[in-house]
Amino acid sequence: MGVKYLSDEWFAKISELADEVNLEIPAGMADMKLNMTVTSDEGDYELCMNGGKIEKGHLPDASTKIIVPYDLAKKMFVEQDQQAGMQAFMSGKMKIEGDMSKMMAMQSIQPTESQKLLQDKIKEVTE
């Protein structure tokens, strides 16, 4: 049985999995700071990408913020459905505030083998 996406238990599990795979972060992602607000009927979730790692909460010095509905966030970041992300942006379901160049830069960064392994593990443990 998996853990609920964006729950406290999920964040703890993701951190544990990142340590297990000895996560290597690509150079272009190592100093990236990006906030994300995931909206849902249960309330909003705040998370961030800090140096290539997913963490709970927002960073005060992040120059970019993504606002996206829960189901879409799960599709994009757990299921790795990049097409869904592009469609969401084009239709206005995903909003980007601040420095859009950070988002564009992320699309050109190739994931390391440990990132791919971590993504597979995240997909396995997320309900």
Structure description:
This protein is α+β, with helices and mostly antiparallel strands and 127 residues long. The chain has a single domain, classed as SCP2 sterol-binding domain (Nonspecific Lipid-transfer Protein, Chain A, 2-Layer Sandwich). It is built from 6 helices and 5 strands; from the N terminus they run ααββββααβαα. Helix 1 packs antiparallel against helix 6 and helix 3 runs antiparallel to helix 4. The longest helix is centred in the first third of the chain and has 13 residues. The model has no long low-confidence stretch (mean pLDDT 90).
Please name the fourth-level CATH homologous superfamily.
SCP2 sterol-binding domain
**Top CATH class:** Alpha Beta
Number of domains: 1
Mean pLDDT: 90
Class from secondary-structure proportions: alpha+beta
- Tell me the Rg in angstroms: 14 Å
Strand order of the largest sheet: 3-2-1-4-5
- Beta-strand residue percentage: 15-25%
> Which fold name is given in CATH as the topology?
Nonspecific Lipid-transfer Protein, Chain A
Uncertain runs are none
**Helix fraction bin:** 40-55%
- First-residue to last-residue Cα separation: 8 Å
Seen as an oligomer or otherwise, the chain set is single chain
How many distinct beta strands?
5
Number of helices: 6
Question: How many strands, which pairing sense, and closed or not: the largest β-sheet?
Answer: 5 strands, mixed
Written as H for each helix and E for each strand, in order along the chain, the element string is HHEEEEHHEHH
Supply the CATH architecture: 2-Layer Sandwich
